[in-house]
Structure formats: C-alpha cells, structure tokens
Amino acid sequence: MDEPHADPRDELFEIATSVRALVEWYDSTGAWGLPLAPARDVEPAYPAAEPHAAPPPPNPRAAAPAADRRPVPSDSTFAQPAQFTPPPERAQVPQYVPPAPPAERPQRPAAARPEARTPEARIEQLRVLASEVASCTRCRLAERRTQTVFARGNPLSELCFVGEGPGVEEDLAGEPFVGPAGQLLDKMIAAMGYRPGEVYICNIVKCRPPENRKPQPDEMEACKGYLASQLELARPRYIVALGATAIQGLLGTTEGITKLRGKWKMYRGTPVMPTFHPAYLLRQPSAKREVWTDLQEVMARLGKKPPARG
Ligand code: URA
C-alpha cells in the first residue's frame, strides 16, 4: 500500500499527476474519454466494506522527514482542470482485429478430445479425426497430394507400426504401406503371428512428400498433433517405429536409426521399438536379421509366438 501523506497537497499532486498520465496515455493510443461509472441501480458485485469501528492505528512511516517528500506545487497548478478535447482525426477508435492464429502450430484436433472411452467411441473419433486430416492444409504437402493417407488395419490392435509417410502407391490408394515396402511389411507382420488387418499401421506424415523425399521437419511438426491424437485414441500396447523418420518424429530426436534400433524407447507412455524401414530391407536384405531380432523383442513382451511353419 502507498504511504499515507502527511500533507494533503502532496496527495492531491500525486492524483493530478496520475490523471494527467492516464489522459496522455489515452491520447497516445487514440482512445479518449473515461470509463463510465457503474449505473446507480446496479447491485454491487460484492458487499460494501464495513465502516471501521475505530480509526486505523497511526502508520509510523507517516512521519517521514520533509526532505523525502515531493515539492509542493504552487496553487496555480490546480487552478483549472484542463479540458481534454480529442483531436478530430482520433475521435474514431480503431476496430480491434484479432491476429490470425499461426498456421503451422499443431492444434489439438477436435476429434481427439479424449472423451471417447468405449472402443466404439474411439473408433468413431478416429473416423472424425481422419476426416479432419482429409481437409488439412497445415503444410505444403497438402498442395500436391491426391488424398491424405490416415491408417489401415485394426485401430484397437495391441500393436501399431509407424512409418514415414505415403509414397506414390499409397497416395493413389489412400492406404499406408501398399507398395513394395508394404508387401514386405505384411510378411514381417505375418511372421510375428498376426493375420492381415490385425495390427494398426500409420505414418508420421499423412500426405505424400513429392518425389518420395523425406518429410521436412516443419511438415513433421505440422502433422505431429494428428499422430498424437491418433495414437491416443488407438492406444496400442506397443509401437514399432519403422526407420529413422518414424522414430525421430515420435521422439523428437535427431539420432540415427542404426544407433537407436533394437533399444526400447517411450512415446507418451507407450513403449516403442525402433527398427529398420522395410524399404531399407529391400535394398539391404542382410539387415532382415536385425529387424527380426527387434520384432522378437516385441513379440516376447506381447507373449506372442511365431506361427508354426506348415
Ligand atoms: N513408406 C512409409 O513409410 N509409409 C508408407 O505408407 C509407405 C511407404
């Protein structure tokens, strides 16, 4: 609280200075006039303070030495309150235009608000999310896609595979992993003992990067919220990240897949096994052995045995 004034003229001077500062600030912002006082017949929002039963005790600091106080202005300073006349060109207060929200900030999609608790509700919300994604224009990949590629398989599966992004075949089909890499992925999934369509498959980005290039960091960032919502609704027990882009997109790391593969990581509470991308295995079939080791780690956690060879 401010110190009480020993001399009432000091206080008057301070009030006048504050009012002048306020009016000057209004003037500089183009606003003018003072806020209206509340109408008399409006009930106060809170009860009036009880009057003091006794005067408040004297404040020991009130008796500050006169040298500490502001000089008292001459009486003429307060003779006439200055009339404030708005300059004509400022009489119109400019209209406030709220700033546009930043386009690339990933916003939590409406479909992903996790009210969905039953499996049916989660599937329905995933459908809503997929249709939000279908009209997404958050990044430049929207300009050249044929369609968005959301997911395939069972959204309520215990196991989810996350790849990089759609290629040319996926862009045309509207489903992830339908090209040559997808065919190899299906064989890996079958080797783990799952029937087709039993696991969930999706990508870091939902639109095809042109010329099959890697998605750029801002494109991954723009799509990040969709994947987060998708996985929050699907709730797999385990995730397999296929390749560097997948694990980098999930973890926000820049470490390479050679270093990361085979080591459990966590994505928002879900264990993730990073391994090589099937497209890499098509070029480097000898790496299948390492991938099989990684997938066996996942199977062990899930209590899954490879199907008997017939
Ligand atoms: N590669 C991926 O990472 N995802 C696909 O959907 C297809 C190929």
From TrEMBL:
<dbReference type="InterPro" id="IPR005273">
    <property type="entry name" value="Ura-DNA_glyco_family4"/>
</dbReference>
<dbReference type="GO" id="GO:0046872">
    <property type="term" value="F:metal ion binding"/>
</dbReference>
<feature type="domain" description="Uracil-DNA glycosylase-like">
    <location>
        <begin position="150"/>
        <end position="296"/>
    </location>
</feature>
<dbReference type="InterPro" id="IPR051536">
    <property type="entry name" value="UDG_Type-4/5"/>
</dbReference>
<dbReference type="GO" id="GO:0006281">
    <property type="term" value="P:DNA repair"/>
</dbReference>
<dbReference type="Pfam" id="PF03167">
    <property type="entry name" value="UDG"/>
</dbReference>
<keyword id="KW-0234">DNA repair</keyword>
<dbReference type="GO" id="GO:0051539">
    <property type="term" value="F:4 iron, 4 sulfur cluster binding"/>
</dbReference>
<keyword id="KW-0479">Metal-binding</keyword>
<feature type="region of interest" description="Disordered">
    <location>
        <begin position="45"/>
        <end position="119"/>
    </location>
</feature>
<dbReference type="InterPro" id="IPR036895">
    <property type="entry name" value="Uracil-DNA_glycosylase-like_sf"/>
</dbReference>
<dbReference type="InterPro" id="IPR005122">
    <property type="entry name" value="Uracil-DNA_glycosylase-like"/>
</dbReference>
<dbReference type="GO" id="GO:0004844">
    <property type="term" value="F:uracil DNA N-glycosylase activity"/>
</dbReference>
<keyword id="KW-0004">4Fe-4S</keyword>
<keyword id="KW-0227">DNA damage</keyword>
<protein>
    <recommendedName>
        <fullName>Type-4 uracil-DNA glycosylase</fullName>
        <ecNumber>3.2.2.27</ecNumber>
    </recommendedName>
</protein>
<keyword id="KW-0411">Iron-sulfur</keyword>
<feature type="compositionally biased region" description="Polar residues">
    <location>
        <begin position="74"/>
        <end position="83"/>
    </location>
</feature>
<comment type="similarity">
    <text>Belongs to the uracil-DNA glycosylase (UDG) superfamily. Type 4 (UDGa) family.</text>
</comment>
<keyword id="KW-0408">Iron</keyword>
<keyword id="KW-0378">Hydrolase</keyword>
